[in-house]
Design a protein that fits this description.
The termini are far apart. With about 150 residues, the protein is an alpha+beta fold. The chain is built from five helices and eight strands.
Amino acid sequence: MSMDGLQQAKLAICQAVNLEINRSVTYVSDQAQFGLSEYWQTSREVFRRLAGDCEDQAIVKAAVLWDQHGFSEYELTLAAGFALVDGPSGGRFGHAVALWWSADDFLNPWVLDNGAVSLEVVRYSTIRERLDLWACCNRHEQWRLVRRP
Protein backbone atom coordinates (compact mmCIF):
# COMPACT_ATOMS: atom_id res chain seq x y z
CA MET A 1 0.00 0.00 0.00
CA SER A 2 1.40 3.41 -0.90
CA MET A 3 1.15 6.50 1.25
CA ASP A 4 -1.56 9.04 0.56
CA GLY A 5 -1.00 12.78 0.89
CA LEU A 6 -1.93 12.92 4.58
CA GLN A 7 0.44 10.09 5.47
CA GLN A 8 3.24 11.71 3.44
CA ALA A 9 2.64 14.99 5.29
CA LYS A 10 2.75 13.22 8.65
CA LEU A 11 5.99 11.48 7.71
CA ALA A 12 7.49 14.87 6.80
CA ILE A 13 6.40 16.22 10.20
CA CYS A 14 7.95 13.21 11.96
CA GLN A 15 11.20 13.76 10.07
CA ALA A 16 11.30 17.47 10.95
CA VAL A 17 10.51 16.90 14.65
CA ASN A 18 13.03 14.05 14.89
CA LEU A 19 15.76 16.20 13.33
CA GLU A 20 14.98 19.26 15.48
CA ILE A 21 14.96 17.33 18.77
CA ASN A 22 18.14 15.44 17.83
CA ARG A 23 19.84 18.79 17.13
CA SER A 24 18.43 20.66 20.14
CA VAL A 25 18.57 18.13 22.97
CA THR A 26 22.06 17.08 24.00
CA TYR A 27 22.46 13.44 24.98
CA VAL A 28 23.35 13.23 28.68
CA SER A 29 22.99 10.02 30.67
CA ASP A 30 20.76 9.94 33.75
CA GLN A 31 23.83 9.07 35.84
CA ALA A 32 25.69 12.19 34.68
CA GLN A 33 22.67 14.48 34.91
CA PHE A 34 20.89 13.24 38.05
CA GLY A 35 23.24 10.75 39.72
CA LEU A 36 20.65 8.03 39.08
CA SER A 37 20.84 4.92 36.95
CA GLU A 38 17.43 5.74 35.45
CA TYR A 39 15.17 8.80 35.49
CA TRP A 40 12.44 9.49 32.92
CA GLN A 41 12.04 13.26 32.57
CA THR A 42 8.83 14.97 31.57
CA SER A 43 8.86 16.87 28.29
CA ARG A 44 8.90 20.13 30.28
CA GLU A 45 12.03 19.07 32.14
CA VAL A 46 13.76 18.18 28.86
CA PHE A 47 12.77 21.48 27.24
CA ARG A 48 14.08 23.38 30.29
CA ARG A 49 17.43 21.54 30.39
CA LEU A 50 17.78 20.75 26.66
CA ALA A 51 19.50 17.57 27.80
CA GLY A 52 18.44 13.97 28.29
CA ASP A 53 19.00 10.39 27.29
CA CYS A 54 17.13 8.25 24.77
CA GLU A 55 13.79 7.95 26.55
CA ASP A 56 13.78 11.67 27.39
CA GLN A 57 14.28 12.51 23.73
CA ALA A 58 11.58 10.02 22.70
CA ILE A 59 9.18 11.55 25.24
CA VAL A 60 9.77 15.05 23.84
CA LYS A 61 9.27 13.88 20.25
CA ALA A 62 6.01 12.18 21.21
CA ALA A 63 4.80 15.21 23.20
CA VAL A 64 5.49 17.56 20.29
CA LEU A 65 3.72 15.29 17.80
CA TRP A 66 0.73 14.74 20.13
CA ASP A 67 0.35 18.32 21.39
CA GLN A 68 1.52 20.50 18.52
CA HIS A 69 0.74 18.36 15.48
CA GLY A 70 -2.40 16.46 16.53
CA PHE A 71 -1.09 12.91 16.24
CA SER A 72 -3.40 10.48 18.03
CA GLU A 73 -2.40 8.15 20.85
CA TYR A 74 -3.19 5.25 18.52
CA GLU A 75 -0.70 6.22 15.86
CA LEU A 76 2.18 7.38 18.06
CA THR A 77 3.73 5.46 20.97
CA LEU A 78 6.92 5.22 22.95
CA ALA A 79 8.78 1.93 22.74
CA ALA A 80 11.46 0.36 24.93
CA GLY A 81 13.84 -2.48 24.28
CA PHE A 82 17.47 -2.98 23.39
CA ALA A 83 19.80 -1.47 20.82
CA LEU A 84 22.52 -3.69 19.42
CA VAL A 85 25.64 -1.75 18.44
CA ASP A 86 28.82 -3.04 16.79
CA GLY A 87 32.29 -1.75 17.46
CA PRO A 88 34.61 -1.32 20.44
CA SER A 89 31.99 0.29 22.67
CA GLY A 90 29.22 -1.85 21.21
CA GLY A 91 26.98 -4.43 22.77
CA ARG A 92 23.37 -4.57 23.88
CA PHE A 93 21.95 -1.71 25.93
CA GLY A 94 18.54 -0.45 26.99
CA HIS A 95 17.03 1.96 24.51
CA ALA A 96 13.80 3.89 23.87
CA VAL A 97 12.35 5.46 20.74
CA ALA A 98 9.12 7.00 19.49
CA LEU A 99 7.11 5.01 16.93
CA TRP A 100 4.68 6.37 14.34
CA TRP A 101 2.25 3.68 13.17
CA SER A 102 1.26 4.98 9.72
CA ALA A 103 -1.98 3.86 8.12
CA ASP A 104 -0.22 2.52 5.01
CA ASP A 105 1.57 -0.28 6.93
CA PHE A 106 0.44 -0.52 10.52
CA LEU A 107 2.60 -3.59 11.17
CA ASN A 108 5.82 -1.78 10.25
CA PRO A 109 6.05 1.52 12.18
CA TRP A 110 8.41 4.40 11.53
CA VAL A 111 11.16 4.78 14.17
CA LEU A 112 12.13 8.20 15.53
CA ASP A 113 15.52 7.57 17.13
CA ASN A 114 18.16 9.77 18.74
CA GLY A 115 20.96 8.33 16.64
CA ALA A 116 21.86 5.28 18.69
CA VAL A 117 20.57 3.12 15.85
CA SER A 118 19.55 5.65 13.18
CA LEU A 119 19.48 9.43 12.85
CA GLU A 120 16.91 9.16 10.07
CA VAL A 121 13.24 8.29 10.49
CA VAL A 122 13.20 4.73 9.13
CA ARG A 123 10.86 1.76 8.96
CA TYR A 124 11.33 -0.66 11.84
CA SER A 125 11.86 -3.56 9.41
CA THR A 126 15.06 -1.89 8.11
CA ILE A 127 16.69 -1.80 11.57
CA ARG A 128 14.98 -4.72 13.34
CA GLU A 129 18.27 -6.62 13.71
CA ARG A 130 19.76 -3.64 15.60
CA LEU A 131 16.70 -2.55 17.58
CA ASP A 132 14.96 -5.23 19.64
CA LEU A 133 11.72 -3.67 20.95
CA TRP A 134 9.66 -5.43 23.61
CA ALA A 135 7.14 -2.93 25.02
CA CYS A 136 5.13 0.11 23.88
CA CYS A 137 3.51 2.90 25.87
CA ASN A 138 0.71 5.21 24.81
CA ARG A 139 0.05 8.80 25.84
CA HIS A 140 -1.69 7.67 29.03
CA GLU A 141 1.34 5.67 30.20
CA GLN A 142 -0.37 2.37 29.49
CA TRP A 143 2.33 -0.12 28.62
CA ARG A 144 1.75 -3.29 26.61
CA LEU A 145 4.18 -6.10 26.04
CA VAL A 146 5.09 -6.56 22.39
CA ARG A 147 7.19 -9.63 23.15
CA ARG A 148 9.15 -11.04 26.05
CA PRO A 149 12.61 -9.47 26.54
